[in-house]
Write a structure and sequence with these properties.
With 305 residues, this protein is of the alpha+beta class. It has two domains: 149 residues, no CATH class; 111 residues, Lambda Exonuclease, Chain A. The chain is 47% helix and 16% strand. The chain contains twelve helices and seven strands. The strands form two sheets. It has a five-stranded mixed sheet. The chain has a two-stranded antiparallel ribbon with strand order 6-7. Strand 2 and strand 3 form a beta hairpin. Helix 4 packs antiparallel against helix 5, helix 4 packs parallel to helix 8 and helix 10 packs across helix 11. The relative contact order is 0.15.
Length: 305
């Protein structure tokens, strides 16, 4: 059992690094080896359990991605796509199951990786009922819009070649394994490939993450950049945005990643073993909004909740 986690980079890691250094420490370092309560320290076990908490919004986003993945895989296998009513019923049941599972705290304590615990239930948040109401509305809109998206209309046509669906992979940048996971990658008859990212929240600028995907696609499939199209599908509204890709975009994003890697490694006592500096080095960044949704607020003395 390795004493420290393996070093790697991902966009989600960078997002957490920006959000709060103390949260970053808890998630990527303090929780390591906490899955084994015989070998991990009580602090590691506690951090690992809290790391597994899911809030309703994140759970819904994951379920919506699973909905899209299931429909695409059936289409790719030559089968009929699931009916919207079936998708809606399945998502509603899975959300309800998560809530029911969260009531069994002892089962979660025994197996936090396999047993669902919603953070709103664990912490007794008063936001639970309003979040359930919001997610019910978003769920209906996501199901209603999926088959009307430009992406679905295109992949349903003859001659489309689906290359990747929700597949983890990586590229190497600055001697670091950089993880990528595209929601969908397909090739059109004009030989252009389309990177698709499903979103279930508000519209925002996600272009940097998508340009990283484009860098991966260019390298893996040996494609010129002018044959790569990036598309963000906002399932709640039914809108979408498309981006073309230039060498300048790729270079800028890769430089940003290099800067993140340097800053993350400055938080290490030993970058060969990925041994972090002491917890006190990771300065907390408390705010009422961020602390409210932080899994680790129970462990953090700086939490303002």
């Amino acid at each position: 059992m390795a004493q420290y986690p393996q070093w790697s980079y991902s966009q989600s890691r960078a997002n957490m690094f920006d959000e709060c250094l103390r949260k970053y420490y808890f998630h990527y370092y303090a929780a390591h080896n906490g899955w084994n309560d015989r070998l991990g320290s009580p602090e590691q076990v506690h951090a690992y359990r809290l790391k597994q908490l899911r809030n309703f919004y994140l759970l819904f986003g994951d379920l919506a991605h699973r909905m899209c993945e299931s429909a695409l895989r059936q289409l790719n296998d030559g089968k009929q796509a699931p009916r919207p009513e079936f998708l809606s019923q399945t998502m509603r049941q899975l959300l309800n199951d998560a809530y029911v599972q969260s009531k069994d705290r002892d089962a979660w304590l025994r197996n936090p990786k396999q047993h669902m615990m919603l953070s709103e239930v664990y912490y007794g948040d008063d936001t639970l009922s309003s979040r359930i109401s919001t997610i019910r509305e978003r769920q209906q809109e996501c199901v209603r819009h999926l088959y009307a998206t430009r992406t679905w209309q295109e992949v349903s046509q003859p001659g489309m070649n689906i290359l990747e669906i929700e597949k983890w992979d990586h590229l190497i940048l600055f001697d670091t394994k950089v993880y990528v996971k595209m929601d969908l990658l397909y090739r059109r008859p004009d030989h252009n490939v389309v990177i698709v990212d499903w979103k279930t929240g508000r519209e925002d600028d996600f272009s940097d993450q998508l340009y990283l995907y484009a860098s991966y696609v260019q390298e893996k499939y040996n494609l010129p950049l002018d044959q790569i199209v990036i598309r963000v599908e906002y399932l709640v509204t039914g809108d979408h945005q498309e981006y073309s890709v230039t060498r300048e975009d790729i270079d800028r994003v890769e430089r940003n990643i290099g800067s993140y890697i340097q800053e993350m490694k400055s938080c290490l006592d030993d970058d060969y073993y990925n041994r972090p500096k002491p917890e006190t080095f990771f300065t907390p960044m408390p705010s009422a909004r961020k602390c409210r949704d932080c899994n680790f607020r129970e462990m953090c003395s700086a939490s303002v909740v």
